[in-house]
Amino acid sequence: MEILWVLAIPLLGGVLLALFGCRRFAPELNSLMSFATLIAATALTIRVINDGPITALNEQFFVDSFNVFLVALTAFVGFTTSLFSRPYMRIEQDRGKLTVNMLRLYHSMYQLFSFTMLLALLTNNLGILWVAMEAATLTTVLLVSLYRTPASLEAAWKYFILCGVGIAQALFGTILLYFAAEKVLGAGGNALLWTHLNGVKGQLEPTVLSLAFVFLLVGYGTKVGLAPLHNWLPDAHAEGPTPISAVLSGLLLNVALYAVVRSKVLVDGALGNHFAGNLMMGFGLLSVVMAAFFLSRQKDVKRLFAYSSIEHMGLTTFAFGMGGPVATFAAMLHMTVHSLTKSAIFFAVGHATQKSGTQFIADIRGLIQTNPTIGWGLMIGSLAILGMPPFGVFASEFMILTTAMHSYPWTTPFLLVALGVAFAAIFGKVQTMVFGETTGQRLPHPPALLPVFAHLALVLLLGVYIPPYLANWYRQAVALLG
Amino acid sequence: MNLSALLFQLLQDTLVVLAAPLLLGWVNQCRAWLQNRSGAGVLQPYRKLIKLFHKDAVLAHNASPLFRFMPYILFACMWLAAALVPVLATDLPLSPAVDVIALVGIFALARVFISLAAMDIGTAFGTLGARREMLVGFLAEPALLMVFFTASVISHSTSLITIVETLAHTQFVLYPSLAFAAVAFVMVLLAENARIPVDNPSTHLELTMIHEAMILEYSARHLALIEWASALKLLAYITIGIALFLPWGIAAADHWSALPIALVALFVKLTAAGAGLALLETLSAKMRIFRVPEFMGTAFLLAVLGMLTHFLLGS
Amino acid sequence: MTDFSGQIINLCAALLLLVAFGMLSQRRVLSLINLFAAQGLILTISTAVVAYSSHQSHLYYSAALTLVLKVILLPWILHRLIRKLNVKWDIETLFNIPATMLIGIVLVIFAFNLAAPISQMAGTITKSTLGIAMASVLLSFLMMITRSKAVPQVIGFLAMENGLFFAATSATYGMPMVVELGIALDVLVGMFILGIFFFQIRETFDSLDLKHMEKLKED
């Protein structure tokens, strides 16, 4: 029942905002719908914690401890981003960058985007998972081109074509998976249900599954932003509205990675070797190293943090690829803290760019003078994302690094060098933005900084103390993923 | 070898050499109709041949014997080719000779001679035409061979007789690979017989002509033989196409009883093929000479694809 | 009878490959759209034949869906779009066409090799067509890479989806109906969004040539 609420509320929100999105109260309505989604998601989470995995609607939906934490995270970040987007989009409108109709599109698509992500997370059917991922691309592509500037159109086109092609590969992978499953489970809708597949994964044809996984990894990996398929990501992040950058980085990448991990469980069961893990480690490591070295060359602050997202998604993929209890635990923790931290950073960056009227790092100066909260938010967020203790990112990166040292020692130097380079690049650039002489202008609406500090506080909390139920939750998921 | 087989062979030889201009006339007539002209009638090529045979030949003073002998060689090659293709029956005295590679060789021989003769006089047009002819031929030959190989892998033989027997007298099977080969073959046919869109047989425009440029210096009986050889070549190509892709109705052995059916079937198929060729020529535009390599490349590619399809579909 | 429908499907597969190469060699946008519609028609026929020979009634629905969506609706939208945008001129290619075709052949061989072990496992009457489906996906991909204009790229994208659909019917007798409906919906919505996009791109750049869109790159 809760599952239906979690899905129905954003869908309803999409329809309502399509109708009323041009009114004054649209941003509030948007937040309200997101809040309702969060409440439904919380109810669902509580139920899953108490009762264990549940299925619903003829097994079409399935919630276990792995996806429920992503559902909760998605609903939470969706809500806080809607809070942030309220003043942000008003300022954009006041500055004449957006018309009322564009805002309507924005709000409606925002809710539909939440819907598609939640659908992708909750569905038990791997075919529907694909459909939802594609729909998530479609809903965001118009958001990336919202400003209708040449650069934003180019970014949106790139995003659409690259992700479209990528996701077509994933469809091929899904077809191959169905092809293998049909032999065991018989034709029909059940053969794509993950729970059924998971039950018979040992009997699935290994050759087909390994080929299917390659396609799935390339397909969904494009959406995760794994190198060398990441080209769309910095552009889409830099040219779209900042709230969209926040949800793309904080949520969509996670959901795509979730799809990869779900497939990996099946493939591991069928193959009985480390083929899928090795592939993921390879792609992950490449992304980490590549992104780290691109970071120092960035001139645009949103591109800078987009590359940082590639780096962190690469790290998470790498950790999932290593497998084993500690690495998988760390990977899930990293997914959570990265989402929270990166969206907080984008909130701060959003207001910072509005204040300075530019996205160029060189032109943003002295944030701490004009608006200490934005400045400190950006500074603390950057320190958190760079893995400084005592933040949660430190804990997860530490676990990933120690596991890598233990199981795959040859990867450690790459990881350490990449993390070091990333630190130097981001810290150096953020420092110049935060300190120094100011150039900023006053904002017509008070910035929404509550989400920034709420997120950072959570990350801090996760760094020093993981609540027992959350740890338990992760452990269950770890056991599930093997 | 018995007498009736020999008679069959003689009948086919006579038939092709006599019917070739008729086919050409039919194609031209169809083109005329399609272009809303009344046309000169299907017998026009015969009239032209008779007219040319009655004229006195004019030769350039520096022409070598090669130039003089070429029309005879060309005519002999084309007649041989047309006579070899199993059009009426499959069991003929010459059948052991009908190897598709040999067939391509015969066409190549004719091409070499016509190109040499074109350059013999030393005029600009002859050399230009020879150069273009060699370009087209060099691209068309591999495509033609590939078409033949595609058919060969189905019947496991390069003998045209075996191919026809496999295709015509076994249970009806759809061969997707032959669909590719057929398209490729039509493209080769258009190029090799100097038809639109590769060449236009009815103009003498120096920018585009290929075949006509080579035979500008010929007159009278030499020209008549060349024209006749061209008609035979067209007939040979169309009958090869029929043998490969529409072999049904051919007489299985030297049964006189099967002959009427085979004759009628051949007549219907040739009529249809001629009309189809005319339609194709009317519908397409002459392409630039620089596009020809691309056109022939596509033909080659299609033939290769046909072969690949055969191996993949494993039929 | 099953044998004969198997042959028809093989023929359809071969024609699909032929059309894929036709698209690769095509210079005009209008012909490209017609080829796309032809591809949809072949797909419809093959799906219907698979449905008939395997007695999978849901495949009739997906054949009907294909007919409506890919033979009628999408080509119609594309025709309308290019009429409104007035983009009927020749397509510029980034490589010359014969080279593209040769790369295409290599891709076909690659796809055949990749599919060969899987095809042997398929129990369906259409088993050997998986390689062709994969080949046409790769060829459409190649077409997207080698074209610099927006409309051909999108047709390449749609053709790729056709190839995937063919893979689904040929290897597995079609995906579950709910998934197929979802995919069809996504394709349709995607097409509408692209339509909006074409207008935005042309409004902003005065052209649908994607060569103008090369500002965003790492310096």
Fold and architecture overview:
The complex is a heterotrimer of chains A (482), B (315) and C (219). Helices cover 78% and strands 1% of the residues of chain A. By secondary structure, chain A is mainly α. Chain A has a domain at 274-482. Chain A has a two-stranded antiparallel sheet. The mean pLDDT of chain A is 89. By secondary structure, chain B is mostly helical. Chain C has 219 residues and is an all-alpha fold. Helix content of chain C is 79%, strand content 0%. Chains in contact: A-C, B-C. Chains A and C meet through α5, α6, α8 and α9 of A and α4, α5, α6 and α7 of C.
Could you give a short description of this structure?
The complex is a heterotrimer of chains A (482), B (315) and C (219). Chain A is mainly alpha-helical and 482 residues long.
Distance from N terminus to C terminus of chain C (CA atoms, Å) equals 62 Å
Instruction: Report the oligomer.
Output: heterotrimer
Task: Report the major sheet of chain B.
Answer: none
Order of helices and strands of chain B: HHHHHHHHHHH
Report helical residue fraction of chain B. Answer: 55-70%
Query: Average pLDDT of chain C, to the nearest integer?
Result: 81
Global morphology of chain B: globular
Structural class of chain C: mainly alpha
Distance linking N and C termini of chain B: 35 Å
Share of helix among residues of chain C? over 70%
Radius of gyration of chain B: 19 Å
- Principal-axes geometry of chain C comes out as globular
H/E topology pattern of chain C: HHHHHHH
User: What is the count of DSSP helices of chain C, taking H or I runs of 4+ residues?
Assistant: 7
List low-confidence stretches of chain C: none
Can you count the beta strands of chain C? 0
Average pLDDT level of chain B: 83
Strand content of chain C: under 5%
